[in-house]
Amino acid sequence: MAAAGLVLAAACTAAPEPDARTKTAWADRVCGVVVAAEAALAAPPPALDPADPAALRTALSGYLGGLSDSLSTAVSAFSSLRPAPIEGGDRIVQIAEETYRGLRAPLSEAKTALDGSTAPDVVAQAVAEVAPKLAALDLTQPLAGTAGTEFTRWAESAPQCARLPSLRG
After folding, report:
1. Residue 68: exposed, middle, or buried by beta-carbon count in 10 A (0-12, 13-18, 19+)?
2. How far are the Cα atoms of 76, 126, 148, 166 from residue 151, in angstroms, in the given order?
3. Do the Cβ atoms of 37 and 142 come closer than 8 Å?
4. Which residues contact 155 (CB under 8 A, 6 or more apart)?
5. Pick from 81, 36, 42, 45: which is nearest to 63 by CA?
6. In this structure, are residues 64 and 110 in contact, taking their beta carbons and an 8 Å threshold?
7. pLDDT per residue as tens digits for the range 23-62
8. Cis bond leading into 83, ω under 30°?
9. Packed helices 89-115 and 20-42: angle between N→C axes, nearest 10 degrees
10. Which of 59, 84, 109, 117 could form a disulfide with 46 if both were Cys (CB 3.0 to 4.6 A apart)?
11. Count of CB atoms situated within 10 Å of the CB of 116
């Protein structure tokens, strides 16, 4: 009798399964964060004039700061998407956060070095550090490995996800 009471109590207190709209809206928000970050990361660097070192430093610092800020915004937005209403969703958000944090760190470090030094070679050092990372950037990486998951099931109906070719197979 006591066991039946525990089962009944557990059944009554379990959270209801989120509906399809909730799951699709969550997938749409995840994709929206990725779309915004991709747009920022795809922006070309400013025209850099090596004949004006001060302007070069300022332009590059602004560019790196903008990229870093965009990645910070994405990390914060992903953090706000927990708990996920779909199975595996928290892991997807965690991977995306880690991806953007990993890219943000060298950008922030290069900007700090650039802003903290007037040495003539600091711009070249910053470019040498950041350029390969940006060139190797795979914009599909934050959602890599989601094919065939519960996430893609709901992403198929989400408008922001339609803007991500990496989710279309």
Report:
1. buried
2. 20, 38, 8, 13
3. yes
4. 27, 28, 30, 31, 146, 161, 167
5. 45
6. yes
7. 999 999 999 999 999 999 988 888 878 888 888 889 999 9
8. yes
9. 20
10. 59
11. 9
What's the chain's length in residues? 169
Distant-in-sequence, close-in-space partners of 88: CB < 8 Å, separation ≥ 6: 149, 150, 151
Place of tokens 């099931």: 153
Tokens describing residue 116? 């903290």
Dihedral of the CA atoms 99, 104, 105, 110 (nearest 10)?
140
CB neighbour list of residue 42: distance below 8 Å, 6 or more residues apart: 139
Distance CA 69, CA 37 (A): 10
